[in-house]
Design a protein that fits this description.
The complex is a heterodimer of chains A (about 250) and B (about 210). Helices cover about 30% and strands about 30% of the residues of chain A. With about 250 residues, chain A is of the alpha+beta class. In chain A, strand 2 and strand 3 form a beta hairpin. In chain A, helix 1 packs across helix 2 and helix 2 packs parallel to helix 4. Chain B is mainly beta. Chain B has two domains: about 70 residues, Beta Barrel (OB fold (Dihydrolipoamide Acetyltransferase, E2P)); about 80 residues, Nucleic acid-binding proteins (OB fold (Dihydrolipoamide Acetyltransferase, E2P)). Chain B contains one helix and 16 strands. In chain B, the strands form four sheets. In chain B, strands 8-9-10-12-11 form a five-stranded mixed beta barrel. In chain B, strands 1-6-7-3 form a four-stranded mixed β-sheet, with helices on one face. In chain B, strands 2-5-4 form a three-stranded antiparallel β-sheet, with no helix packed on it. The longest helix of chain B has 14 residues. Chain B is elongated and about 70 Å long. Chains A and B meet through strand 3 and helix 4 of A and strand 10 of B.
Chain lengths: ~250, ~210
């Protein structure tokens, strides 16, 4: 896997894993998987396997971090040592610290932080297996964990990346495409409010390519949102049935 | 809740044709559109942006077409913070002669994943005069109390009721669970005698 493939897109226009340029990887989401957390979600996005847990609102520790007028969102993105080919040191790396911040800022606009002043919400994101696009999958899972914890939200947040591989703009890059390809554009949106909460780009794209990538990513986010909705509904349909049995 | 559902489903047929696709009792998610402010008064569990009513919780949409209110009944365990008049359960963390600090870990029926800190002042313990906080509770005790103020996010607690007060007390000499005697608390192990302001159901509640 580590050697460089010769061509990322074959003559038929298909990618390494046989996807079309505008095709997502298969996604599976489950909500409420951890009983000790207030809210949790597990996502399998292609080969990515990510667990997200939300705790709170609760009193912040250390206390001096509290804000008098709003709830503080804290986020920890962490990759397990076994999540990548070569063992990753379990200590938070520079990249993980930055991604924690990026994910927090992508989720913050969706949360009514002013409802619970002087409290904090902690979000823990554990990447069990990584294969490109973990930040987007993490945002998708973390938004569901927050909703599962009963924290009032303006909207869910769905995220997806697009990028450039060879000469084509493609949706949902996997690890090899991300490393060998020439650009990566992660986008997170609040689908009902039609608002972008995260937009990054690394690599070089022309204006046209960038616009195409953003459009593609937003389309991808909307598809992911449909899966998100289904997962959350499946969880609470199950809860309702349990209640009926108890009655 | 069920009464509401019946009313709206009866009236819904002819009152609004448009809201037929947004049926009352539907499972809604945060950000789901519930209607516009011209047709409904937004109630709990909803918010308004640019004249459109959205849900802010995972729950069931309740559309009362008589009072024209729309609300969301939460299905996910609700985010809980201590509110005035809520009954809370906590552990006495630190006692002074005039007040005790309580680590609240349960609000109503909901167990918290973290804690909130509350203060029980000696003047809020009982209607009658209490000489010292040592006669009320000791560090380590589990107490049930009512929130009487959350000004400045400092939770002031009160135990001025029969079913409020210490629910589990521990001997300050040997940490054994104390048993209520006629007027005082007795340690069954070392015979130590202490005082507490106990709740009616002392030793019989699940925490």
């Amino acid at each position: 896997m580590s050697e460089k493939p010769e061509k990322l897109i074959d003559k038929k226009g298909l990618r390494l894993d046989g996807r079309k340029p505008d095709e997502l990887r298969p996604i599976k989401i489950e909500v409420g998987v951890l009983s000790n957390a207030d809210g949790s979600a597990y996502i399998e996005h292609g080969k990515n396997k990510i667990l997200a847990a939300a705790f709170g609102p609760r009193e912040m520790h250390p206390k001096h971090l509290t804000l008098p007028d709003r709830m503080v969102l804290r986020c920890r993105y962490h990759m397990a040592p076994f999540s990548v080919q070569e063992r990753k040191s379990p200590a938070p790396s520079r990249r993980e610290i930055e991604l924690s911040k990026v994910i927090r800022e992508a989720l913050e606009p969706a949360v009514f932080v002013e409802y619970y002043p002087r409290t904090g919400v902690d979000i823990f994101i554990e990447v069990l297996q990584a294969d490109g696009g973990t930040r987007c999958a993490s945002i998708t899972a973390a938004a569901l964990a927050l909703a599962d914890a009963g924290i009032p939200m303006r909207d869910l947040v769905a995220a997806c990346a697009a990028g450039k591989v060879g000469d084509t703009v493609v949706l949902d890059l996997m690890d090899t495409e991300d490393k060998v390809g020439s650009a990566d554009v992660p986008v997170a949106i609040m689908p009902n409010l039609n608002a972008v909460t995260l937009l990054q780009m690394d690599g070089i794209l022309t204006f046209e390519e960038f616009e195409r990538a953003v459009d593609l990513a937003i389309e991808g986010c909307k598809k992911i949102y449909a899966v998100q909705k289904e997962a959350l509904k499946a969880r609470y349909m199950a809860v309702k049935q349990e209640e009926e049995v108890e009655e | 809740m069920s009464a509401l559902l019946i009313i709206s489903s009866k009236k819904g047929n002819y009152m609004t044709l448009k809201s037929s696709e947004r049926k009352s009792g539907n499972l809604v998610l945060p950000g789901e559109r519930l209607g516009v402010i011209e047709e409904f008064i937004p109630d709990s569990g909803t918010y308004v942006k640019d004249g459109v009513i959205y849900s802010k919780l995972v729950g069931r949409a309740l559309m009362d077409l008589l009072s024209r209110r729309v609300s969301v009944y939460p299905l996910a365990s609700e985010a809980a913070v201590p509110k005035v008049s809520a009954t809370v359960i906590g552990q006495v963390y630190n006692g002074q002669s005039d007040s005790a600090i309580v680590r609240i870990f349960k609000i109503g029926q909901k167990k918290l994943s973290g804690i909130f800190t509350g203060i029980l002042h000696i003047s809020d313990v009982q209607e009658k005069y209490v000489k010292s906080m040592n006669d009320v509770c000791k560090p380590g005790d589990i107490i049930r109390a009512k929130v009487i103020s959350d000004k400045n996010q400092i939770y002031h607690l009160s135990t001025k009721d029969k079913n409020l007060g210490v629910v589990y007390a521990f001997c300050s000499r040997c940490s054994n669970l104390l048993e209520p005697g006629r007027h005082e608390m007795v340690c069954p192990k070392c015979g130590n005698v202490e005082r507490r302001k106990i709740a009616l159901d002392y030793g019989r509640t699940d925490v």
